Amino acid sequence: MTNNEASIKRARPKRIGLKDVALEAGVDVSTVSRILGGRASLYAEETCRKVQDAAAALHYRPNATARGMATGSTRMVGVTIPGTGYCGRIIEGINKALLEHGHLMLHAWNPDHFVPADDPTQKRIIHELVERQVDGVILRVGSEEFEQTYFEEIWQRGIPMIVVDREMALFKTDFVGTDDVAIGADAARHLLGLGHRRLLFVGEKEIVSTCRLREQGFRDVVSEAPDAACRKVELDLETAVVEDLAPALEGEGHPTGVFCYSDRMVPIFYETARKLGLDIPGDISVVGCGNLSWGKMLAPALSTFEQHPEKIGRKAAELYLERVAEGEQARPAPKIIRVAAELMVRGSTARV
Amino acid sequence: MTNNEASIKRARPKRIGLKDVALEAGVDVSTVSRILGGRASLYAEETCRKVQDAAAALHYRPNATARGMATGSTRMVGVTIPGTGYCGRIIEGINKALLEHGHLMLHAWNPDHFVPADDPTQKRIIHELVERQVDGVILRVGSEEFEQTYFEEIWQRGIPMIVVDREMALFKTDFVGTDDVAIGADAARHLLGLGHRRLLFVGEKEIVSTCRLREQGFRDVVSEAPDAACRKVELDLETAVVEDLAPALEGEGHPTGVFCYSDRMVPIFYETARKLGLDIPGDISVVGCGNLSWGKMLAPALSTFEQHPEKIGRKAAELYLERVAEGEQARPAPKIIRVAAELMVRGSTARV
DNA sequence: CTGAAAGCGCTTACAG
DNA sequence: CTGAAAGCGCTTACAG
Question: Which residues are in the HTH lacI-type domain (chains A, B) (predicted)?
Fold first, then answer.
């Protein structure tokens, strides 16, 4: 089974091309191209057989680069999304959906956080993607705060752009994400339903749409409960320490129901609660968002929202494929797709 | 700042090519190609200026697809590695190193676990990568148990292959990973140093090199301590339940020092210990490997090895670049690079 | 049912 | 110091 011959001859052999197959089969390259390219029905059965046999015998693989030049489509999508954790699962979804349609991801990380508008690395990434003639780009912005002008090059050239997870203010693009307002609303309903009336929203200093919209949904619902009130604290995750959060949790009349807009705020929350001697969920309930892998290993396990990131990735890929299929015509109005999230109730939330 | 014009005219404009720049500058395309391609020193200063001005005015971006056809190098590496967690950090390292050299990842997931030798999806992925003329492939195998024959296509064509993280038995390729034997040995030394003599190695049923080599390093060191003994249990992570591990931890003379070859075995270990009423680290110490993100949030925080996956990815990318630079000559002997891991001592290990 | 030819957008000997 | 031409490996009107 182990191929020892192969491990000896190592010089790279000349690649087999359409020409070689044509020669072997005794036909023209255009004939081979059409038969192997799905137009076999045009040809005599025997010609098809000869060509297929020759291609198989020579282990022919088409050169997608050359095909891309000829057809104008590389069947590659540029993906600028950080690859770990939650985003990694989005990418997994993209990858699977694309593969079923013969497309591949040209994957260039971009940071999870704020990047200056003219960051040279980001510009480089965009240049690289454009130069490689990607059919479209699926991207995620680090922050809403500063406009991501380095994406302008893509937009100007009319290359389809699908934004995922966080909204982008600069261009009116297609978007696939989670239903953030609904998440905020559901978090509020869950806490109110458990009897909590003194609520706290834990947001992030960095301005991202997910935080803004979840707060909006949360407040909308809280404001409908006449006896409930919502406070708010914003953390800078890069630097956050217990002292940043403690004032919001201390003293008489401290909040008993907390919504951390992202699971990423939860570890510092647990730590602060412990330091203050607050029992979760005895003294204070907390619900997060994202269903990150470690949430169920916390003590108590975290109540949080599963956002189905693979599904988000899959939808983004499908939208990209749709845009590519539309071709060069004037682009239609942007589509906004929001995938519903689900609250996973675990041990961190309880009756007041 | 917001470009409203751009959001109105959406039809895709014709791409600007070398020809357009040449026309604009009043020179031949070959002149433009050479000046923009780094051979500017050949030309008169004024010609260079004219060409550069024209390129800038037209926002010219070279077509990497066409360049790839002409030069035989696409400056793309195929990456078949799952993208989440630990592997995601490898990919991050690859990505950063490549970007500095103008290469990009064509990223196709492959599963973390065992895949049958002739899995059609895997074969498809390899075909796609080969067709797109990648300059090389960085890959990780799911399991050592069955030979990954779907990689044969790459090997046969002499495309550089860099294997990361887990060794591959089928081909003698370049490899970049962690120093697994040293990790096993260090884990044993740590536990022995804390006075533990009844040791347990927790491995995985699936046959991967990391597990095999860590066990080897662990046993080598344990066997040198005359009064120490090592037992072993193997779990199938897909199905593992408390009952699978409990027998190894129960009863008089149960092990007091445990090495879980991967952090992935740790949650089931904590759960089992809790069910059996064993205090960590009071009754039993445990050390993991991988420094996965949630380890420090466990109670107690997990002692584990940081493997520096970004560094592994970076080294793999550098090795790939080296192989590409060597060109089509007969390939030299494979290189094996092992990045040292570091034990992070936290709360899960203590004196016996 | 099949072939000859042009073209995709570059690079690179070769010539001058 | 610069240009004209061939070639990379395909696809696709066009012709027969």
Answer: 16-71
